[in-house]
Amino acid sequence: MAQRMLACTGCHGKDGRAEGNVYFPRIAGKPAGYLFNQLRNFRDGRRSYSLMTGMVAVLDDDYLREIAQYFAALALPYPPPAPSNLSAQSAAMAQALIEQGDPQRQLAACTSCHGAALTGVLPHVPGLLGLPRDYINAQLGAWKTGQRHAGAPDCMAQVARSLTVDEVAAISSWLAAQALPADTRAVAASTLAAQGDLARPVCGSAPELAGPSR
């Protein structure tokens, strides 16, 4: 199987770790459901990147699922995070949005869907740590401008459009600078905590988020 995945690791790095690359994300250890959704999104036109689209255009769901399960099963160490260049004020603003959201805008916290430790939620929600700042910034920007889509209702597009350009930049920098916890595995949706009166977004690509919070 590893031989067949060389087409993937040529860009995403050995074993899908993508170390030192600011444009290609780590795929090792991501939830299988998330990876499968992204492969289908590239194939079906909801995400646009010609290299990825060309590679998966003729692959059926069974093969895409096999790819997703292969990389999801890789439990590999993460490199240390890059240092942050955020001011104290910008870092505090980013952390507040990530951990608390913004009730005035009905903007849910990142942790409400991606988990308290931001390591992702099984089976469809990815972790947000261990990714390059430029990659995070580009993906939020793509959702904000309508260049990236997910299954309807597209919760991430709604979130990204609610953020200012400065907030997107600060959030990207803050996330990229965080050290990963000892346990980097995605958690079960049943562990997600409710956040006061803020409703969790409804995500067509992650139906598990609609379940009850503890």
Give an account of the 3D structure.
- There is one protein chain.
- By secondary structure, the protein is mainly alpha-helical.
- The chain folds into two domains: 6-72, Cytochrome Bc1 Complex, Chain D, domain 2; 88-209, Orthogonal Bundle (Cytochrome Bc1 Complex, Chain D, domain 2), CATH 1.10.760.10.
- 41% of the residues lie in helices and 0% in strands.
- The protein has helices spanning 6-12, 32-44, 50-56, 61-72, 88-100, 111-114, 133-144, 155-162, 165-176.
- Helix 2 runs antiparallel to helix 4, helix 5 (88-100) crosses helix 9 and helix 7 runs antiparallel to helix 9.
- It starts with 5 loop residues before the first helix and ends in a 38-residue tail after the last helix.
Provide mean pLDDT, rounded: 92
Count of strand segments: 0
Task: Give start-end ranges of low-pLDDT stretches.
Answer: none
What's the CATH architecture name of the largest domain?
Orthogonal Bundle
What does the main sheet amount to? none
What's the domain count?
2
Count, helices: 9
| Estimated share of beta-strand residues | under 5%
Would you identify the CATH H-level superfamily of the largest domain? Answer: Cytochrome c-like domain
